């Protein structure tokens, strides 16, 4: 990496820290949302931790956290913020369908959209709202699976998955139903969200809700069927851009 690209990476990571950690109102809204899924003494997995705003929320709620972040810059932020905390385990790895390694396409100027999915990059090309995104670096990183994480760390009460178009691959590495989880969706790749819904339906009787963008506000206020959620995601305008689908296993 050239000096100019290294400086750009540092600036982008610093900008992310301010954006994701600098607003107490956003942090409070996040805590209010996640309190419905995570509590004191629970275990949470944060798959695609970026600069650790969700890690911070889970810790404020009293959960123990396993955080996966394969990008060196954001991982250093998590290490700086939580390296002293024995209840946060940082793994500098990706998560996917199988253990081994994979290649990340790194967006140096915008590390929030680094991805292991070539289809994600192709879908972003020319799409409204995605102008100017350049994936200008590649790194090879270790890859684990949700099943392996569960084997090593235990069964989580909640799993957050935000991996830029690779969400269905992450769920392909899970072979058991979990109490609750979320996965990011984008309107440039609705088919990935539909694949995630199908996979979760294979694993167990899940109900679903969704929060758009960083609103931290659930849309339905109740958990709806897979078909209802799929129709809702298909019907969203392109400008909705992204959000998180929340899935809760029925206790009946």
UniProtKB/TrEMBL annotation:
GO terms for molecular function: methyltransferase activity. Pfam families: Methyltransf_21. GO terms for biological process: methylation. Residues 46-180 form the Methyltransferase FkbM domain. It comes from the Bacteria. InterPro entries: FkbM_mtfrase, SAM-dependent_MTase, SAM-dependent_MTases_sf. Keywords: Methyltransferase, Transferase. NCBIfam families: fkbM_fam. This is FkbM family methyltransferase. It comes from Phreatobacter stygius.
